[in-house]
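Protein modeling request. Please complete all fields; requests missing the sequence field cannot be processed.
Requester role: graduate student
Desired output: 3D structure, C-alpha cell encoding
Chains: 1
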Amino acid sequence: MLNTLTIKQAAEGLRAKKFTAVELTKACLVRIEERNEELNAFISVNAEYALEAARRADERLAAGDNITMLTGIPYSVKDAICTKDLRSTGAGQILDNYIPSFQATVIDKLEQAGAVMLGKTNCDAFGHGASNENSMYGPVKHHLDQTKVSGGSSGGSAVSVADDMCIFSIAEDTGGSIRQPAAFCGIAGLRASYGRNSRYGIMPMASSFDTVGPMAKTTEDLAYIMEVMAGHDEKDATTVEEAVPTYSKELSSGIQGLKIGIPKEYFEIEGMQKEVREKIEEQLETLKKLGAELVPVSLPYTKYAISVYYILVPSEDSSNMARLDGIRYGVRSEGDSLIDVYANSRAHGFPEEVKRRIMVGTYALSAGYYDSYYRKAQKVRTKIIQDFDRVFDEVDVLVTPTSPFTAFGIGEKKDDTISMYLADVFAAPPAIAGLPALSVDAGADASGLPIGLQIIGPRLSEEVLFRVGHTLEKA
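Delivered output (475 residues):
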C-alpha cells in the first residue's frame, strides 16, 4: 500500500514513475477517511488543497526540474502551526474559526520543495499537555490500542504517521511534545536544537523553549526533512546562521569509537516501567557491539528539571496566551463589558490545563514572587545547561529512555496533575538546555506498546544523533 511507504521509498517510486503523487496522496486520504473518525488524529483535512498540490508535484516530476526528496510526498501539520488560508485552531476553541493570512516559514520551505499538505493534526491545546487529552476537539487515541493515549502534545501528528495516514508530519516540541508521542507510537521524532529551525508562524507557548521538528517512520526520513526545513530565517531572530549539513550523507558513517554517555540519574527515576529499562539496556548493548564506547556520567541537576520547567514555561506561557482574548481574532463570547468579553471568551475557549498554566505563570511572575520562583528557576536552568556542557566535554551523545513508561490509559492520569507532568521527566532537561534530542523506537512492552529511546547531543549536533538513530534502526 502506497501510504505505508517511507519518504525514501516513496521518492524512489515517484521518480521511477511506478505511481504518481496524486495516487500517493489519494492513498493517504483514503486511510484518513477509514481511520480518523475513530482515532481523531486530524482536526481539518484539506483533500482538494492536497490533490491540487499533488498535481503540481506530478508536473514538476514530469518536467524533471527542481525535484527534491520531498516532492510529491504527503504530510500532516500540527494545528498549532499556522498555515495560510487553512484553518489553524491550536486545538483550542478560542481559535475555532481562525484562518491565518500568513504561514510558518517551515511550511513555506516544504511547499517550495513540493511536499503535499494533507491537513492539520489534533494536539493538546496550544501544546499544553503530555497525553493529547487537553484538546478541545477530543483526545487522540492510540493507533494500536484505542483505550490508550497517543502522547502529547503532538499526538495527532504521531498517530497520523504511525497509522499510515501520511508519510511524515511537522510538529512542535516545547518540553517533549514531539519525542514523547513519537515514543508512545513507535516512530522517530526530532526536537531540533533551539535556533536550528525557524519558529516564525508557530503559535508560541514558551518562546525560549519552543522548537519545530519532524516526525516520520525512520531516522533517515527525518534527515531528508531537516535538509529542507532547517536554516536561518530573517523573520526569526533566534535562528542561527550556520550552514545546514547534508544530514542524509552522514547516516551510514557508523558509530565506531563514538562515546555514548549513560546518565545514571535517568535510570534511577522512581516509577520507571521495568520493561522500559530492560529495552534501553538491550539497545545500549547493541551500540556497544557496533563499536561505541559506553561511558557512565552524572547530571546531578536533572532532579530539578521538572520543577524548573513548570515554573519557566507557565511564566512565558501566561505572557504568550495574553494575545488570545476574543477581540483581535478568533471566537468572541458576549459580555456586558470589555472585561466580560475577555473573561467569557477565555473561559469558553481555553481548556482547564491552559487556564492552570496561565494562573501558575502569572503567580510566578507577580511582584511578590518573581525572585522566589522565576529568578531562582532561571538560575537552576543555567546549572542544568552547565551540567550538559560538562558532560559533552567527555562524551559525544547521551542515551536515555524517552519516557519512563509506555502509553497509559485515557483518563488514567487526568486528575493527577503531578503524575502527568512527570511524563516529561526525561524529555524536559534537553529542552531546558536548548539541545537537540531524537526519539527512536526501541521495541515494545508485553502489551505490544512501543518503547522509545532518546539520543541527546550538543547544540547543532543533529547529524550525530541521526547516525546513532539510523544505526540502531538498521541493527
